[in-house]
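Objective 1b of the project was to move from sequence-level analysis to a structural picture of ligand recognition. The entry below was assembled by the postdoctoral researcher (A.K.) and checked by the PI before modelling. It contains the amino acid sequence of the target and the SMILES of the bound compound, manganese (II) ion.
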Amino acid sequence: MQAKISEAVMAIRASSKVLAISHIDADGISALSIVIKMLEREDKDVRWRNIHQLNSETIIEVEELIAKNQPDSLVFSDLGTGQMDLITTHILAKGRVERIIVLDHHLPHEEQEESRSNDVIIEINPNQHGLDGGYDVSGAGVAFFVAYALSEENVDLAELAIVGATGDLQDYYGKGFQGANREIANLGQASGQIKLSKDLTFFGINTRPLPYLLQYATEPYLPGITGNEDACYQFFAELNIPLKDSDDKWRIWTGLTNEEKQAVITKLFFHIDEAYGDPEITKGILGDVITLVSRPIETEMRSAKEFSTLLNACGRNRRPEVGVMICLGDEDAYHEGTALLQQHRANLAAALRRLEDGGYTEMDGMYVVRDPLTSDTIIGIVIGMAQGSRIVPIDKPIIGVSTNFKEDSALVKISGRARQSLVEKGINLKESFLRVGEEISRVAGQEVVEAGGHPMAAGAFVHCDFLDDYLNLVSIDLVLSPLLSKKESLLKTITEKRQKGG
Ligand SMILES: [Mn+2]
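Corresponding predicted holo structure:
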């Protein structure tokens, strides 16, 4: 991977005008901001654009941007590996640019486990070098390693790499980062950009008034407290902890005294232990919390977790460029971003409320959420939260279908989430989505599905005429595939026994 990074560094030095394309989520926005900063510091002319997914429709947009801006080099971040065929046919084959750098961490298809670099393309994907793109490093992390190799002065960009990794949920619940992410965190700490401390891992410790810190807690969901405003007030009243300070301003977690914090944590431990009886969950409310010390206090930008949510909110409200400007330090963008965050929260809450009113169906292999009011940009988050808060059961994967999409498109976006326990039983959403996509395209005689992602979280674009067939077949595949892989491994054990014992 170091060799590939060096090649990317040389390619960047050789370029003068660069078009950078990135994903719209927090990791994609952070990755793009790192790319922009490192290029600007090298005095390159940079044009950039976030896109929701690289597919057969958006690649045309990229072609148009190339025609308009005439860059000599292209950089893709947080996407590209799964779309190498599109990049090859639409850009490489047409000889549009001199260099194409792909900085991605999504799992390659099985036949693409080797980097497909050539004279023009430099592909850097940690999965092709023995790292795990799900946990070891994010798209922003890959971009950071290139930036850091370009100049050690880019070490300050470590904070954005950590924001990206946080956005992709690469920190283990309660345990923090590992692998390359841990290295990035250490670099950021050594350079004074970030501070790691053991603290409450809840969302909003820098920004939320105390009652709301509990009312909106979902990691873990606090039975009897989450969503219950009265219970939250009562919780602090029982501990004699005032909710407002002498200026009548709401107090936030980071403003509490150590004694107050200790009292709250003890009470939470007791409550969570009673509700779950699982010491892992109880202990997990304390863990590595990352503070971005050069960002203004009492803002979302102060914590990696809240910063990534702010960026997600921009992307999911179709304003990813606002997120990029926030990363680059633009104050107006920050104010616009916080308004988008409020909108984002309202959209999520409304979508969850519709689900609570029974807005999902059960199939053999999965639960399906089909809500025309939920946009394709938040459907993935909504289904994740629906299972996190147990509004939808967790014994099967959950699939969200969004028909709320760009009007002129024939493609429907679907998203899937599966709990770790299901993945351990042999469920692999990405493989199921891809396999059924290939099968259905074969019998349909045309490409009707484009899919990608990870075993626990995957997505697909499906031609609307084949949506119901696709869902029915995926449901069957999700029932069968764990059984078939179990069968395979049993057969393998027999072979091994025979070889050993004769
Ligand atoms: Mn990512």
